[in-house]
Fold this protein.
Amino acid sequence: MLLIACPWCGEREELEFHYGGQAHVGYPANPEGLTDSEWAEYLFVRDNPKGLFAERWSHAAGCRRWFNLIRHTVTHQILAVQSNRPVAAGQPKPVIP
Amino acid sequence: MSHQLPAHQLPEHPDWLWRTPDPKRSYDVIIVGAGGHGLATAYYLARNHGITNVAVLERGWLAGGNMARNTTIIRSNYLCEESAALYEHALKLWEVLPQELEYDFLFSQRGVLNLAHTLQDVREGTRRVNANRLGGVDAEWLDTDQVRAFCPIVNTSPDLRYPVLGATLQPRAGIAKHDHVAWALARRADEYGVDLIQGCEVTGFLRDGDRVTGVRTNRGPISAGRVALAAAGHSSVLADLAGLRLPVQSHPLQALVSELLEPVHPTVVMSNHVHVYVSQAHKGELVMGAGVDSYNGYGQRGSFHMIEHQMAAALELFPIFARAHVLRTWGGIVDVTPDASPIIGPTPIGNLYLNCGWGTGGFKATPASGWVYAHTIATGEPHPLAAPFGLERFTTGALIDEHGAAAVAH
Ligand SMILES: Cc1cc2nc3c(=O)[nH]c(=O)nc-3n(C[C@H](O)[C@H](O)[C@H](O)COP(=O)(O)OP(=O)(O)OC[C@H]3O[C@@H](n4cnc5c(N)ncnc54)[C@H](O)[C@@H]3O)c2cc1C
Ligand SMILES: [Zn+2]
């Protein structure tokens, strides 16, 4: 069982979280300009590294917020947790680095 | 005090079933991965196509990956026509392989029940039975009483949180002993002259422009006319080395066995809704599994709550197991595609072939996977049964959506 530090709630058991896969996958900036293979890449292809992986988790049974963390996919060690600061209405969304 | 026997008093080691050759400098075909699929591919390359200048390279030991870790369920009652055709081809091969390989690997057609617990399950199950029958796959719909008659230890009481409303039954489905399947294939491939090379990790590819000409390994470079990947959970890692990105995510998948018990379970029971499946191995262990851990992982282990969840489901369905002890749990790394169907065929890189994405359910396909892959490698063209499963389906959109169709894992 992973012990995951939610940026808002602190360390909680993995059971409270929902996995969101690879982080930093942006919606295509120019969707109508994409070729079929570019769409395939966006829809179906994600990194699948044996090693460090930046991924998304949602604290589904807690504060329900999404955040990113970096985990080693062999040792399961979590190296960094990154909170996305909440956005006030009308503000531009933060740019995910 | 030690009770170990001195070496000369130990029983003799049984004969090895295959040689342990050093790699040659060059082969017609190199297969990467000596799991079931790599071994079956080598066997059918020799048997069906007369191609025997072949090496199977394995980074660990022969069949120590998912082939050693699966729960051995064999069935062909998939909903989509393309899948049913492929898995039914496998089932027909399972029916002849013990004789053909002259090796009794305990293939037992004891039937597989897929339980229905909701109205939606009932509709899905009856639809799948009808689709299977139209496609020439044996399938029956059992109501609750028939389920009880077929497998008396299933709790069919209406008081269950998710009562058993019925089940699909594939009578020809069943289980086999996975290790022995691998050894049977390995022995025959070896007899044909195939080199099975363990402790040989592929670390890169030899290239000539847009085609591969061999592999780099921890035992030196080896050239090859064709290179065929059969690396299951590590397929993305290998494809990355060739500069190829795959629509595959690797997840831990766990299973467990109980201590040895008297024969009590006559069939295989799968429940997708409460999510557990249970059979009893010939030796006597109850064998149980469920779904993948949600996160990507290469560590061959997962989280314990997955085990707790499947045990809870198992106890609800089989109260008779309440006092059985868990002997052992383990995990493998399964290669999951977006549509839960495998990827078989050529790649955009010349002479490089791909067979992966079998996810949680590739053991049952072992012979067919080898059969169609060998054809693809030998001829350069997809086998008709494999043609719908090419990598290009993710671009054309012609997915074979077993996730959406039946959502029955394994
Ligand atoms: C817990 C569990 C339960 C399962 N239950 C079922 C079931 O009931 N029914 C069913 O049909 N399927 C089941 N499966 C799925 C099934 O086991 C797999 O789909 C199937 O075994 C994959 O094919 P394989 O046997 O060739 O894989 P593997 O045995 O994993 O073979 C791949 C091989 O490639 C090797 N390799 C990887 N990278 C390299 C490299 N760089 N160089 C050299 N070699 C390399 C690996 O070491 C490995 O031996 C289950 C899987 C698991 C983990
Ligand atoms: Zn939280």
